[in-house]
Amino acid sequence: MQEQSLQSRQLYHMTIFTQCFSPCGKYIAAANNYGQIAIFSLVSALSPEANESSRLPIYCFKGCKEGAIYCLTSTDTFLISAGEGDICAWKWSDIHNKAPKIIWSLSLPKKGVFTNPEVNSMVVDKQEQATRLLAGGGDNDIHIWNMENGQLENSLQGHEDYVHSICLKNNGRECVSASEDGTVRIWDARSSSEAVHILEPHKTPMCGRPEMGKWVGCVAMDHGDDWLICGGGPKLSTWHLRSLTPTATFDTPGSCQNFVMYHEENVISGGMKPCVNHWYVNGDLKSQVPTTSSSIYNIAVNTVLDQLRVLSVVGNSCKIDVCTNFGYKAFSLKFVPS
Questions:
Q1: Residue 243: which residues within 8 A CB-CB, separation 6 or more?
Q2: Is the dihedral of CA 67, 68, 70, 76 positive or negative?
């Protein structure tokens, strides 16, 4: 009875911060505030014979000793998790065999005896010469490791508060970061010098919302690297990178955006309201899709397999909403630890 009661409380208070699809596109991994990672089968969940059990995890494991996991990313071989504690890599083949073990781990450089900063955002930069992992978080810096040998190659320093989100630009030669300090910084990822450009959306009249704060929680680049979109306390806004000026805003009254992405010719975002926003690039709202979570932290699109092409949404709920047609929620997966 006590165990059932504990599980019920955990489900009620669960927040799923992050998710990613497997390299084959047949599975989705999600991680929560308890440091648990759950694996779901999209093939089973999308089957015409699917029932409630088809939409439960096929496997769960502990990915963090203590605390939450805030970000997941993937390579062809590894599922990589990070949050409180070390960055950890798990082989997908071991996960499929339900025998995951940490293959390698990385630690953020310590700035003091009592510091143990969290990782809020990660991205993999795969190049012909080497594959690099970039991570930003609670120590205000972006760290870059060579994934072949585990060596820390570079640390980009300049933010005055923690980093919420990072993405790549110019085929990995540049990194873009969004921070609690109210800035978006564009860095030369090959140099340890200061940021090449600094954007401050909260100081721009068309973007600023003083009542919401100056923090920038999400950032993304368009496929041509000509446009940047960011938001948080300030309005979600697109910036033309040649002129470094905002060109359009995406109005979400009373709602800060936690996540944004370019998808095909549109923009998709989510934040502090129970819906996914689909936008035209000029800032006009195309549609809003209601969600189970009242706050959205991550949105992902499976682009690996056309027959399993879905949009999935995670936030402050134990349920992962799945949209087969991006205009409505088809069903929800339920993160119930096994």
A1: none
A2: positive
Dihedral sign from CA coordinates of 28, 142, 229, 69: positive
With beta carbons less than 8 A apart as the criterion, state whether 144 and 155 touch.
yes
3-state secondary structure at position 336: coil
Q: What is the pTM of this model?
A: 0.94
pLDDT per residue as tens digits for the range 7-55: 778 887 899 999 999 999 999 999 999 999 999 999 999 999 999 999 9
Locate all alpha helices (DSSP H) within the chain, ordered by sequence: 2-12, 42-46, 92-96
In degrees rounded to 5, what are phi and psi of residue 308? -120, 25
Measured distance CA(45)–CA(27) in Å, rounded: 10
Q: What is the dihedral of CA 108, 299, 280, 310, to 10 degrees?
A: 140
Contact 141, 156 (CB under 8 A): yes
Question: How many residues comprise the chain?
Answer: 338
DSSP-based three-state secondary structure for 91: strand
